[in-house]
Amino acid sequence: MSYDTVRDMKVLDAVVSETLRMYPVAIATACEDYELGNTGVVIAKGMRVTIPIYWMHYDPDFFEDPETFNPNRFMDPSQIKHPQYAYLPFGAGPRNCLGMRLALLEIKVCITNILRHFRFRRDAKTMVPLVYRKGAGLLSLSNLYLGVEKRTDVK
């Protein structure tokens, strides 16, 4: 599989972007002097502030029907409706994650290879709907059971 092939997988791009919106992988912190508009509130250098990425990604002011998994919201960049800094799976601006492009490429290559070689099915023991424990760190869930079958129709 070539780089160009992976790069041109627009539906997979949208699915990954929507997954990162709904399930951000980590919290972010900011540590520099910053005045909050004209409020007189200053975040002093060295003070740690946690940016609530998860809650921003679920804000209905930024994302219509935020509880619904909808990759279409990322299919056409000209139709993206949320503000630039409302979607932050890798941070934003000059200090965003240096490994973002590599991470996205690795995600797409892994998903593509896994789906080429295996079929997945939800096992009857899986509780529906899935229940996630949401907090300051990574999301986690329990009671997810998958059946995995090696595909024989590909080389």
| Relative helix content | 25-40%
Gap between N and C termini, in Å? 13 Å
**What is the strand tally?**
8
Please give the order of strands in the largest beta sheet: 1-4
Run of helices and strands:
HHEEEEHHEEEE
Overall body shape: globular
- Number of DSSP helices? 4
Range of strand content: 15-25%
Helix/sheet category? alpha+beta
- Give the low-confidence spans: none
- Estimate the mean pLDDT confidence: 86
Q: Which sheet architecture does the biggest sheet show?
A: 2 strands, antiparallel
Q: Using only CA atoms, what is the Rg?
A: 19 Å
Protein name: Probable cytochrome P450 6a14
Cofactor: heme
Subcellular location: Endoplasmic reticulum membrane; Microsome membrane
Binding site for heme: 97
Write a short abstract of this structure.
The chain has 155 residues and is of the alpha+beta class. It is built from four helices and eight strands; from the N terminus they run H-H-E-E-E-E-H-H-E-E-E-E. Helix content is 26%, strand content 15%.
Strand and helix layout:
Elements: H1 3-7, H2 10-22, E1 28-30, E2 34-35, E3 42-43, E4 49-51, H3 53-57, H4 100-117, E5 118-122, E6 132-133, E7 140-141, E8 146-150
Antiparallel strand pairs: 1-4, 2-3, 5-8, 6-7
Characterise the protein shown here.
May be involved in the metabolism of insect hormones and in the breakdown of synthetic insecticides. GO terms for molecular function: heme binding; iron ion binding; monooxygenase activity; oxidoreductase activity, acting on paired donors, with incorporation or reduction of molecular oxygen. The chain is α+β, with helices and mostly antiparallel strands. The chain has 4 helices and 8 strands; from the N terminus they run ααββββααββββ. The chain has helices at residues 3-7, 10-22, 53-57, 100-117; strands at residues 28-30, 34-35, 42-43, 49-51, 118-122, 132-133, 140-141, 146-150. Strands 1-4 form a two-stranded antiparallel ribbon. A two-stranded antiparallel ribbon has the order 2-3. It has a two-stranded antiparallel ribbon with strand order 5-8. Strand 6 and strand 7 (140-141) form a beta hairpin. 8% of the residues are buried. The model has no long low-confidence stretch (mean pLDDT 86).
